[in-house]
Amino acid sequence: INLNFFSVLNVAKKAMANNNIGISWLSQLNAEALLAQNYPPRPDSVTMPQLDFDSNNPNSLINRADFVYSQSQFANLISANPNLVLNGSVYVTGEITIPRGSTVSVSGFLAAKNNINLGISFWPFWLAKASVTLSDPGSGPVGLFAKHDINIGSYTGLISVNGLIFANNDLTVSASGLNFNVSGAVYARNFS
Question: Which among 9, 18, 53, 159 is most buried, taking Cβ atoms within 10 Å?
Fold first, then answer.
C-alpha cells in the first residue's frame, strides 16, 4: 500500500500489507490498525484469491454475466449512453475504459478480461469526471473485477462499490478529490 501526494485513505478495519505500507508526507492512512513489514507485526502471507474470469465452468464470471460485450461494443454503448444504467452483471472480453462525461451504474459486477481504466484522459476537458456505481442486486457477486490492472485516473469523480474491487495485478489510484467508497473489500497484488 503506497499513499502519495495528499492522499487520504480511511479503512474501517485493519490495513494490511505483506510488504511495506508507504505513507508520504501530507498523506494519511486511517485504520483500526496498520500491519506490515514496517508496521509490526507483519501479517501472515495470504495467497491471492483467484477469480475465474473466463473458463468453461458455469460459475466463471463470463458465464454468470447477464451481458457480455467486446471491448468495442462496450465503448460504443458508453459513447451512446453517457448515463448508462445496466440491471445485471457485465463482462467485457477486452479492456474497459470509462471516460470523462460518463456515469456507469451496474446492479451486479463489472468485469474485464484485461484492464479497467476510469477517468484516465484529460480529453474532453469540459465534461464532468467519470463515475462508477456498483450495487448489490440481491444475489450473485458484486464488484469491479479486472483480470489485469485497474487504473483510476485524475478525471474520476466517484467510485461507489457495495462489494469487492479485485485487480489481479495493480490497483492504481492517481486521482485527487476522488469520492472512493467501498463497502466490502479491496484485493490487489499492488495498491498505490
Answer: 159
Distance CA 142, CA 134 (A): 7
H helices within the chain, ranges in order?
Answer: 61-64, 71-80
* Phi, psi (deg, nearest 5) at residue 74: -70, -40
Q: Is 106 in contact with 86 (CB distance < 8 Å)? A: yes
Chain centroid to CA 147: 11
Within 13 Å and on the Cβ side, how many CA atoms surround 43?
15
C-alpha cell at 52: 475465474
Q: Left (φ > 0), alpha (ψ -120 to 50) or beta: where does 126 sit? A: alpha
54: amino acid identity, one letter? D
How far does the chain reach from its first CA to its final CA, in angstroms?
Answer: 6
- CA 70 – CA 112 distance, rounded (Å): 10
pLDDT tier for residue 152 given thresholds of 50, 70 and 90:
very high
pTM of the predicted structure, to 2 decimals: 0.90
Q: Which amino acid is at 56?
A: N
Cα–Cα distance for residue pair 147/49, rounded to 1 Å: 12
Q: 25 is written with which cell numbers?
A: 508526507
Average pLDDT for residues 83-100, to the nearest whole number? 98
Q: 153, 177 in Cβ contact below 8 A?
A: no
